Amino acid sequence: MNKKIELSKPALNRKAKRQTKLDAILRHAAKAFMENGYYKTSLDDIAKLHNVTKPTLYYYVKNKEDILIKCEDVASKRINGLLDEVTATDENGFLQLKKFIVGYVEIVTDDIIRCHIRHRGQRENSDAREASLNMHRGIEHRVREIIRQGVKDGSIKSCNSTIIAILLFDALNGISAWYRNEGELNHEDLVGQVLLLVTDGLRK
Amino acid sequence: MNKKIELSKPALNRKAKRQTKLDAILRHAAKAFMENGYYKTSLDDIAKLHNVTKPTLYYYVKNKEDILIKCEDVASKRINGLLDEVTATDENGFLQLKKFIVGYVEIVTDDIIRCHIRHRGQRENSDAREASLNMHRGIEHRVREIIRQGVKDGSIKSCNSTIIAILLFDALNGISAWYRNEGELNHEDLVGQVLLLVTDGLRK
DNA sequence: AGTTTAAGTTACTCATGGGTAACAATATAG
DNA sequence: CTATATTGTTACCCATGAGTAACTTAAACT
Q1: Whose CB among A32, A39, A174, A179 lies 3.0–4.6 Å from B39's, allowing a Cys bridge?
Q2: For chain B, what percent of residues have pLDDT higher than 70?
Q3: Per-domain residue ranges for chain B?
């Protein structure tokens, strides 16, 4: 028994270490992609950020595009996780949508998510492109459903939920392109203005 | 006199023809860039679309990036032209903003404009990048001013005009990525939903 | 007419960068 | 303490694609 523990410990450590390194590579890559764009960032650049050489990357990642796919995976899980949280409550549609917006603005400052938002739709492999599209449609569909439910329960104005969901995502995703957490504009003000626009509109 | 006219006519024809061809190249390039992205579109591809060979393009365009710059030029003129129109009236800020939104959604379906929106910020040359940023700031500033004026004259809710202008552009520019004029969703419905969201918000 | 300018072609150069093969070092297992 | 899987390296290959040089054809002006 004692032996078993001693034997399994390093093995777990190994897997964990590997995962940690993969995560770090993803973070480094995502940051570089956001700063310079996918095509202007070479695998050598990414390797350098990680203090390894290019071939080492291929031990963690299938190829360059695979980095984007793995980022998408992370993004998909976080966004769907948020949607799980939001839709778990029995609040009305409007309040659920509001919660989603607040959570999404939080999520959208993460480099991996930003990278995914910016580079989704750039998949070269057609299967990967299809998968990416599907996962995106899935998320959009869930938000659309929240809106639809809100219209039904009377908390949201009657509207074309499809278009509204897309417009909402356009605005929120746009944030990922310019917003920096470190900057002078704080998070609460940003969320406040987004909610002002989305819930009550601009007309006085 | 008769002679003079005969002499100047072909010269004008030449310049006009040249301009026409440049426009066509820009359109072809912009369309290809939108379909496949800037880096996945080679100059050979663009040349082929125009039934010429690659070196011929260099007769009309300085280099690949110059295509983006020329697209930006077209875009800048059209958007600023719209803003000129909109701000020429003495209507209140809200109505001016509404007019701008309607006009912008119209503009945003043009391939050259779409290309510019998608690829702005990808300039490799640092001077070009700076110029691009400045022109974009200029436009954003003008919209911000409209909003500010609206707040002043009481037609728009009190808000952070900087953030709101950015969010508005995020949503509108997002449209350029997915909206096709030919599709089942007609222009009026789209504009209607945008205005619903922006002017009155979703909360019932 | 003949000369010049515009417009276009073929055939290259050359840097970049994704991806791989073969080899080296290090940690884990027995 | 050796055998083996895990990580990593150096040194390459090779496709792609931007940009250019030198040459040809077509149009336009005097």
Answers
A1: A39
A2: 94
A3: 8-61, 68-201
Instruction: Note the pLDDT tens digit of each residue in B147-192.
Output: 999 999 999 999 999 999 999 999 999 999 999 988 889 999 999 9
Given CATH 1.10.10.60, say whether it is the number of domain A8-61: yes
The top-level CATH class assigned to A68-201 is mainly alpha
Measuring CA to CA, which residue among B62, B61, B77, B72 is closest to residue B19? B61
Q: Closest nucleotide to A53's CA, by C1' atom?
A: D9
Residues with CB under 7 A from strand D: A 14, 17-18, 21, 51-56, 59-60; B 7, 10-11, 13-14, 40-44, 54-55, 58, 63-65
Name the residue facing A193 among B160, B173, B201 (closest C-beta): B160
DSSP category for residue A67: H
Interchain CB contacts (distance < 8 Å): A and B: 133
CA distance B64 to A20: 40
User: Contacts of residue B160 in chain A, CB cutoff 8 Å?
Assistant: 189, 193
Alpha helices in A37-92 (DSSP H): 43-49, 54-60, 64-88
Fold matches, A8-61 and A68-201? no
The nucleotide closest to A62 (CA, C1' atoms)? C19
